[in-house]
Amino acid sequence: MTFEQDETVAASETLPLVVGIGGTIGGVSSTERALRIALDAVEKQGYRTQMFGGADMARLPLYDPKATTRTADEQAFVEAVRGASAVIIASPGYHGSISGVVKNALDLLEETARDERPYLADMPVGLIATAYGWQATGSTIAALRSIVHALRGWPTPFAAAINTQVTKFDDEGGANDPAVIEQLRLVGHQVARFAPLSEPAN
């Protein structure tokens, strides 16, 4: 590696990190594709991103607050959020609220309770909800906002609610509704705008 490459790597590591959390257990989903579009918008602002999709969250054991050890997957998730300046959370709407796999991942942030910056304190948090119909999108966004408030985070003003009954995503990072793409990019842009104001815990 040349000196110039060393400088480039060092500079990139100082850029704010935005962590994406979202997806479903059953493979790459509409939720995960929506989250990827928002994270791509963050990257185009020059920031780093790291995504924990459905497969990543499926490897997390059910959160046990009394456990004395954590798996490597649990540790990697917690350390990523500790090092983040912002987060984007995407959840499908299951029976009017967020999915269990997303909630389990967020419960694991209790590991940061005694950090200098606990939970999602002072972090901008973008929100995305997907559901097969409009009813669950609103209640899922409301649930996500309540959880982020409880974790001391700052939900960004705009949240993307996506009805997958009418919006279809493709494998190339697009969707059949350009307005949905713009909504997801707006989530990413708002998170990127405020990410530099948040200091990571490590």
From TrEMBL:
GO terms for molecular function: FMN binding; oxidoreductase activity. InterPro entries: Flavoprotein-like_sf, FMN_Rdtase-like_dom, NAD(P)H-dep_reductase. This is NAD(P)H-dependent FMN reductase. Residues 18-162 form the NADPH-dependent FMN reductase-like domain. GO terms for cellular component: cytosol.
